[in-house]
């Protein structure tokens, strides 16, 4: 489904709000999307990634790698976001016990399979199930941004993990590189074999992630004296 990536993280991220120290939020969110990341490759791998066995040979390694990349780019990406969203930059130095990350990754993947079991029963799906599926997908487009806003507004990331590191901000460079890289990814996506809208959109999402990572790397190679560090919103008392 085109909206599957917002839907699946939203289903599992409340666990992080419930017990922040028990779960790795990045691994939860990435694990919940791991089966659908296979859409970027297309073909039969998509079916194989949506199985219990694939949680271990596909979901876990893909989640561990992607979570590492997310943490790697977090400071530079977050520094170019507005307000309290800059606090997500601290994710770079957050380190959970390995077993917390592994369990969170597997829980995220399992939640994806369970949610698909409910909302994608099979070829004989009745109208009521289609309604559940469509409502959940489109609602997630609104609810996931609200969730991120809530976490930022309450400064929960900073309360859990401390302040984000101060990193240089060069908005023109960062967003220019990000947009150009995404445009290149979108062009390549348009040239690849078309497997349907779900594959096309996931490929665009992967292109966007790569674009942000490339922009983050560019900042490290083109840094200059006088760059302004990102200002992080103060946490109100009480």
Automatic annotation (TrEMBL):
Keywords: Membrane, Transmembrane, Transmembrane helix. InterPro entries: DUF4184 (IPR025238). It comes from the Bacteria. The chain crosses the membrane at residues 55-77, 135-152, 172-188, 200-222. This is DUF4184 family protein. It comes from Dactylosporangium aurantiacum.
């Amino acid at each position: 489904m085109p909206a599957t990536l917002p839907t699946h993280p939203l289903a599992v991220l409340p666990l992080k709000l419930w017990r922040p120290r028990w779960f790795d939020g990045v691994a939860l969110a990435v694990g919940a999307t791991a089966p659908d990341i296979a859409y970027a490759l297309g073909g039969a791998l998509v079916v194989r990634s949506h199985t219990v066995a694939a949680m271990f040979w596909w979901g876990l390694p893909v989640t561990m790698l992607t979570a590492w990349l997310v943490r790697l780019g977090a400071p530079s990406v977050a520094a170019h976001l507005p307000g309290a969203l800059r606090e997500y930059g601290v994710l770079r130095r957050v380190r959970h016990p390995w077993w917390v990350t592994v369990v969170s990754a597997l829980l995220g993947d399992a939640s994806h399979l369970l949610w698909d079991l409910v909302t994608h029963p099979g070829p004989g799906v009745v109208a009521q199930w289609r309604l559940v599926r469509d409502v959940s997908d489109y609602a997630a487009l609104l609810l996931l941004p609200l969730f991120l806003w809530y976490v930022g507004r309450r400064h929960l990331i900073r309360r859990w993990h401390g302040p984000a590191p101060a990193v240089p901000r060069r908005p023109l460079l960062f967003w220019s590189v990000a947009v150009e890289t995404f445009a290149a990814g979108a062009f390549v996506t348009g040239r690849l074999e078309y497997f349907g809208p779900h594959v096309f959109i996931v490929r665009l999402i992967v292109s966007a992630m790569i674009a942000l990572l490339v922009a983050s790397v560019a900042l490290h190679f083109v840094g200059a004296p006088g760059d302004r560090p990102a200002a992080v919103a103060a946490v109100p008392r009480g």
